[in-house]
Amino acid sequence: MKTPLLRIEDLTVIYQTDLETVHAVNNISLTLNKGETLGIVGETGAGKTTTALSIMRLLPDRTGRISAGSVYFEEKNLLDLSEKEMRTIRGENISMIFQDPMTALNPVIPVGKQIAEALILHNNDHLTRDQIEDQVNQSLELVGIPAFRKKDYPHQFSGGMKQRVVIAIALACRPKLIIADEPTTALDVTIQAQVLQMIKELKLSLNTAMIMITHDLGVVAQTCDYVAVMYAGEIIEYGLMEAIFDDPEHHPYTVGLFGAIPSLVSECERLYTIEGLMPDPTQLPEGCKFKPRCPHAMTICDQNPPLIKMSETHEIKCHLFNQKKVSL
Length: 328
Description:
Blueprint: E1 6-16, E2 21-32, E3 37-41, H1 48-56, E4 64-73, E5 76-77, H2 83-89, E6 94-97, H3 101-104, H4 111-121, H5 129-142, H6 159-171, E7 177-181, H7 189-206, E8 209-214, H8 217-223, E9 226-231, E10 234-240, H9 241-246, H10 252-259, E11 307-311, E12 314-317, H11 319-327
């Protein structure tokens, strides 16, 4: 068996204030191999971004805390490293493409200098000034921006071009893992398609592993090898992308996500909606977190459901399928 590039074991994350405790991520486990793409899907507040920030060790200092679990990168537990050691990991080995390109860039520094900053910080090859300049040019051209625009400021770029600059910064040191947090949310549909295609091509050419965080199942279908569906801080369904899209049985929440996708072949007056709201993360319900919204809720759902192996490439955390297994 090959050793995973990234292995998350029983990760639990809370945000704590004087007034309340937010249970953001609850006992999740994931693995990712070199060159693979894992999609993490779920609605706002599911815990997707908190999972990414936990991997990067970028949780807010005063409120965010990893209360349990481990995050292994190349068999090294990132949670055991000092902040100084983590700074050598960020950018060089693991990079993050943040959600909003409008705010991810420093508005008073030319984009070329912002790319060069990452190279200078991780200058393990002792590059000269000219070599760093060459790499800045290569990074910009890699994402389809002419090198002469390195002297321009962020306000001189469109939203799509800003996102390309953010991707160039993330790729500058050729990291082994890229975490893309909703990289196309702030872009219009046409630019989204271009950016996703570019990310896919760059990942293949550089053989980089990727975690794609999104609420859009169309993005998952276009870019991912594996899919993890998150709800209220838990992984409720996991599997090979083809299994998630093709298998007939799904977690009721995943059924709702698929039902909310507009169809190109059938007519409907209104899209399917999932009744109710995600539970308050400061007061999560006992047992299955989806029970208050689930059309198939049973008495047994007051207990935490097990992870049911539907096939070698598909798992669902739901009592509904446990009951079916028992009846068989």
